[in-house]
């Protein structure tokens, strides 16, 4: 109880998590980092960079895989029981927003979100929780621009090209990403009617593969394909499905978003596949910077910026090393 009598000025001023304690000088700082899909390389990378922050600042990082609402709720209680002061979370479902906020508040924990922004009962972002995400629509446009440039470079007639748009419309950042890609393609003269939506049930390769297979079966009229999704895993699913139909690197151009191991492994294969490129985003910012911001909040009562949107850079097999270096990811 003693911990609870200390209020942070920032929290009191904004009315957010007003009972969250400020760590006392001697309290060891403990920060949770909850991710929705611990098996996905992007989240492994976020954790890796959060560990770097923990070593640098001298706090304990508690990594928790939380693929369901129940897991999230019990993880928060568990963090509170082990005297953590705050956590960073990529939620398995943005609609859990009000429940997660209430639970953190009841347990006296500071929270910030990463990647996927919580929404309230009417679907609006919960603006009172600090968030770091990607500039989703613009990054989607970079994907669409990259696809359009490659279609033109190959001299394909756009009427013969189908676009597999792997969608996951439950997640606002996913909608923004794929909408950005579609808009950029259409702005470059791509026929909107050739965009085939393929809804995935979960944001992984297997579910994208299943969705893309249906899109391919229903559209035998196209000679070439392009594909995009909210992340690399989604595009890989589409690329694998296309391979199964005989559309290999010379007739398939997929561009993902992420730049983690799934994409890197693809680029390391001896010959090119239909996975042409990825817009590399920064697990360093999303892992190291978020947990450092949380640490400063706990230690100094300095609330993180309410909204930070990070950028990305398109990379292909040819320039991936250079792009990773530019993004400060080379030594990972
Ligand atoms: C979402 C996706 C992840 C990754 C992050 C990046 O959470 O599901 O694959 O792209 O966004 O912010």
From TrEMBL:
<comment type="similarity">
    <text>Belongs to the bacterial solute-binding protein 2 family.</text>
</comment>
<protein>
    <recommendedName>
        <fullName>L-arabinose-binding periplasmic protein</fullName>
    </recommendedName>
</protein>
<keyword id="KW-0813">Transport</keyword>
<dbReference type="InterPro" id="IPR050555">
    <property type="entry name" value="Bact_Solute-Bind_Prot2"/>
</dbReference>
<dbReference type="InterPro" id="IPR026266">
    <property type="entry name" value="AraF"/>
</dbReference>
<dbReference type="InterPro" id="IPR001761">
    <property type="entry name" value="Peripla_BP/Lac1_sug-bd_dom"/>
</dbReference>
<keyword id="KW-0732">Signal</keyword>
<dbReference type="GO" id="GO:0030246">
    <property type="term" value="F:carbohydrate binding"/>
</dbReference>
<feature type="signal peptide">
    <location>
        <begin position="1"/>
        <end position="25"/>
    </location>
</feature>
<keyword id="KW-0574">Periplasm</keyword>
<feature type="site" description="The binding site for the sugar molecule has not yet been established, but C-87 may be involved">
    <location>
        <position position="90"/>
    </location>
</feature>
<dbReference type="GO" id="GO:0030288">
    <property type="term" value="C:outer membrane-bounded periplasmic space"/>
</dbReference>
<keyword id="KW-0762">Sugar transport</keyword>
<dbReference type="InterPro" id="IPR028082">
    <property type="entry name" value="Peripla_BP_I"/>
</dbReference>
<feature type="domain" description="Periplasmic binding protein/LacI sugar binding">
    <location>
        <begin position="30"/>
        <end position="306"/>
    </location>
</feature>
<dbReference type="Pfam" id="PF00532">
    <property type="entry name" value="Peripla_BP_1"/>
</dbReference>
<dbReference type="GO" id="GO:0042882">
    <property type="term" value="P:L-arabinose transmembrane transport"/>
</dbReference>
